[in-house]
Amino acid sequence: MGKIAYVFPGQGSQYVGMGYDFYKEFHTAADVFHSAETALRYNLTDIIFKGPEEELGRTIHTQPAILTVSVAIYRVMRDMGFPPPQVVAGHSLGEYTALVVAGGVELFEAVRLAHLRGKYMQEAVPPDRGAMYAILQLPPEKVEEACRMAGDEGVVEPANYNSPKQTVIAGEKKAVEKAAEICRQMGGKVIPLKVSVPSHCSLMKSAADAFRLKLAQTPIKNISIPLVQNYTAKEHTMAHEIRENLYRQMFSPVRWFQSVVYMVQNMGVDTFVEIGPKNVLSKLIQQTVDKVRIFNVEKVEDLEKVLKAVS
């Protein structure tokens, strides 16, 4: 029997009303929402459930919102008797959720970190300067080549290695558009992303440097459940390593598909459970590895079915 990994989504999975059925039905979930509000000192729950979409889509709200919803769902699962994860991982912001679940940081602290991370990222680049595009149907090496070819226009870099068939690029708008056009000419499919900041590229270095002090001030503990981190695509349990990788993650590419491959090949994971809004990670895992079981818990109605399958 292989190991079970719990994985958590990042920015882009949010939608107005996410998690409402858990909030309504389970005190455990409602407590998580209320704890998040206490930490942030504003009504995050209202923004999550009522929107408007533009407000929820602001990075400073999106990041704590997704973390809150994902932790609320996980805690209901824990109460129901789901097996504990043997490995955890998250995509970008989802790494903070994974750290909460592994017991490395308290929810109260993680929500505040997510809010500040979003704030510094939002402030790092003026609204019209950055862009992100998803490149489909091209291998990562070709996307890297396109970024190099477009570099004379400014900063453009791979930001998310999502699957062997999907790489996201980020940077300055003109350079990103040029790289995207080169990818299109190479036979790739190009999709502009609706994002307010160009994440995981060198434009975020100033945001990461400002955030580093907050990370240093936050109590982070060693963990017994290994966390596979975006920056290294390897497992970590020591607090000082986790903290440093969270800092570097902000201005470095998310090595998601490499992390998935590592979990399967090096850690013996054969079951993935995605916890949180939508099922973006489940689809990326399907594109990356064969012969693994993949489930996602997004709605209350998913609980019984997934519990039965993984118990």
TrEMBL record:
GO molecular function: [acyl-carrier-protein] S-malonyltransferase activity
GO CC entries: cytosol
Transmembrane stretches, start-end: none
Iron-sulfur recorded as keyword: no
Substrates-to-products reaction catalysed: holo-[ACP] + malonyl-CoA = malonyl-[ACP] + CoA
Residue intervals of the Malonyl-CoA:ACP transacylase (MAT) domain: 7-296
An annotated GO BP: fatty acid biosynthetic process
EC primary class: transferase
Active site (record annotation): S92, H200
Domain of life: Bacteria
Pfam families attached to this UniProt entry: Acyl_transf_1 (PF00698)
Keyword Transferase set for record: yes
Keywords for the protein's UniProt record, in alphabetical order: Acyltransferase, Transferase
InterPro entries with a match to the protein in the record: Ac_transferase_dom_sf (IPR001227), Acyl_transferase_dom (IPR014043), Acyl_Trfase/lysoPLipase (IPR016035), Mal-CoA-ACP_Trans/PKS_FabD (IPR050858), Malonyl_CoA-ACP_transAc (IPR024925), Malonyl_CoA-ACP_transAc_FabD (IPR004410), Malonyl_transacylase_ACP-bd (IPR016036)
E.C. designation(s): 2.3.1.39
Family according to the record: Belongs to the fabD family.
PANTHER family: MALONYL-COA-ACYL CARRIER PROTEIN TRANSACYLASE, MITOCHONDRIAL
Name of the featured protein: Malonyl CoA-acyl carrier protein transacylase
Native source species: Thermocrinis albus (strain DSM 14484 / JCM 11386 / HI 11/12)
